[in-house]
TrEMBL record:
<dbReference type="InterPro" id="IPR003333">
    <property type="entry name" value="CMAS"/>
</dbReference>
<dbReference type="InterPro" id="IPR057206">
    <property type="entry name" value="DUF7884"/>
</dbReference>
<dbReference type="GO" id="GO:0008168">
    <property type="term" value="F:methyltransferase activity"/>
</dbReference>
<dbReference type="GO" id="GO:0008610">
    <property type="term" value="P:lipid biosynthetic process"/>
</dbReference>
<keyword id="KW-0489">Methyltransferase</keyword>
<dbReference type="InterPro" id="IPR050723">
    <property type="entry name" value="CFA/CMAS"/>
</dbReference>
<dbReference type="Pfam" id="PF02353">
    <property type="entry name" value="CMAS"/>
</dbReference>
<feature type="domain" description="DUF7884">
    <location>
        <begin position="20"/>
        <end position="94"/>
    </location>
</feature>
<keyword id="KW-0949">S-adenosyl-L-methionine</keyword>
<comment type="similarity">
    <text>Belongs to the CFA/CMAS family.</text>
</comment>
<dbReference type="Pfam" id="PF25371">
    <property type="entry name" value="DUF7884"/>
</dbReference>
<feature type="active site">
    <location>
        <position position="367"/>
    </location>
</feature>
<dbReference type="InterPro" id="IPR029063">
    <property type="entry name" value="SAM-dependent_MTases_sf"/>
</dbReference>
<protein>
    <submittedName>
        <fullName>Class I SAM-dependent methyltransferase</fullName>
    </submittedName>
</protein>
<keyword id="KW-0443">Lipid metabolism</keyword>
<dbReference type="GO" id="GO:0032259">
    <property type="term" value="P:methylation"/>
</dbReference>
<keyword id="KW-0808">Transferase</keyword>
């Protein structure tokens, strides 16, 4: 049977009469419209893609074909991704051959450093093209949804500092400190003494130079260091970890939180901000699109569900105080990033090449769509170290996080004559 006809029949049968606003142009310039007014055009450059689609995971195959230049796409990203999702529904679901046990074994110090080097040591200049002015590579915080990326990221930095109730002179450890955005903000606006650790040589160099340039070298120390190698006797008042624990591995989470508990003073607070699986079923295995991310974007990355995060924090004597889901905020952040990357397309390609540009563009657009569709979530989890006989008082309410000069009322019950 003709491969092209077999493919078209397969898709039409899978769609069950539902229109898909897609035009496919084949390698011989023949075309087919799945709806009267297609808004997305997909140009296939060889029959190889059809064979792959019939046997592989649809979103992974399309992503890889786009990166390799075997497929061209025309249309708005949100339309392209909606059409790709519709197209994937026409094919039976296929599970990845990878297993959680294999992936869990990869999180040694050397493998983690290798994975971080692949993703973050691309080029500081490349990231500066599309990140905000503070070089923050994690979910922004929107109050209206209409803010620009610079404002959203500064709101996020301040939101974290407020949640941690940072005070002048406190020692703050930032695990996975990136280019130093949070530590710079906390030192300038909250008067902390900070330490940041990263495995990225590019981030380390720029963050260290930044602290010197901003006159913060005596307040903030940047280290090229694995979080597991933070000295045993180093104690901090507060710990932040923003967009980092996705690299830890689910099996390593108890060790990760144990390290935080070890370096945190009794009664000290920790804020863990990271991507989480939207459902428990997604946590244990692969879903469509994840093999592409594993191969091209985040080698060895693993996304836990919120239940695992809270359980493993509790196992390290970290009492959870506050949980906030910022899922819509990350969709909006990624939309800003991909628009800015597209605006600097020629510069980006000149810096990192066409292939890497395509990887980052389709990855960020796909993640924006995934967060919008609730395929992934983003949780900030605030906790306090409670390992002694005398428990540290906690705030009665959240108002201190949002209102300037609001008194920090501690929850200390009055027993009276009881």
């Amino acid at each position: 049977m003709d491969l092209r006809k077999n493919f078209l029949d397969h898709v039409k049968n899978g769609l069950n009469g539902h229109p898909l606003p897609l035009r496919i142009i084949f390698w011989d310039d023949h075309s087919y419209d799945f709806a009267d007014e297609p808004i997305v055009t997909m140009r296939l450059k060889s029959a190889k893609i059809i064979t792959s689609l019939l046997v592989g995971s649809t979103l992974d195959v399309l992503g890889e074909a786009y990166v390799q230049g075997e497929l061209d796409l025309e249309g708005r990203y949100q339309d392209i991704l909606a059409v790709a999702e519709g197209l994937s529904n026409a094919f039976p679901k296929k599970k990845s051959s990878k297993t959680g046990l294999i992936r869990k074994a990869l999180h040694s110090k050397s493998k983690d450093q290798e994975a971080i080097h692949y993703h973050y040591d691309v080029s500081n200049d490349f990231y500066q093209l599309w990140l905000d002015r503070n070089m923050v590579y994690s979910c922004g915080y929107f109050k209206t949804g209409e803010e620009d990326i610079d404002t959203a990221q500064e709101q996020k930095l301040d939101h974290i500092c407020r949640k941690l109730h940072l005070q002048p002179g406190e020692r703050l450890l930032d695990i996975g400190c990136g280019w130093g955005g949070l530590l710079s903000w906390a030192a300038r606006h909250y008067g902390i003494q900070g330490v940041g650790v990263t495995l990225s040589e590019e981030q380390y160099a720029l963050a260290k130079e930044r602290m010197e340039r901003e006159g913060l070298a005596d307040k903030v120390e940047i280290r090229l260091q694995d979080y597991r190698d933070i000295p045993e006797r180093e104690y901090f008042d507060k710990v932040s970890s923003i967009g980092m624990f996705e690299h830890v591995g689910r099996a390593k989470l108890p060790e990760y939180f144990d390290v935080i508990q070890r370096v945190l003073k009794e009664g000290g607070w920790v804020m863990n901000h990271g991507i989480t699986a939207a459902s428990q079923d997604d946590e244990g295995g692969h879903h469509s699109g994840s093999d592409f991310i594993d191969k091209y974007v985040f080698p060895d990355g693993e996304i836990p569900h919120l239940w695992r995060v809270v359980r493993d924090m509790a196992g390290a004597n970290l009492e959870v105080l506050d949980v906030e889901n910022l899922r819509p905020h990350y969709a909006q952040t990624l939309i800003h990033w991909v628009r800015r990357l597209e605006a600097h397309k020629e510069e980006a390609i000149a810096m990192v090449g066409e292939t890497r540009y395509r990887i980052w563009a389709i990855y960020m657009a796909g993640c924006a769509y995934g967060f919008w569709r609730n395929w992934s979530a983003l949780h900030q989890v605030l906790a306090v170290k409670q390992s002694g006989e005398e428990l540290t008082p906690r705030p009665w309410e959240r108002r201190y996080q949002y209102v300037d000069n609001d008194p920090f009322r501690l929850a200390e019950p009055e027993w009276g004559d009881l």
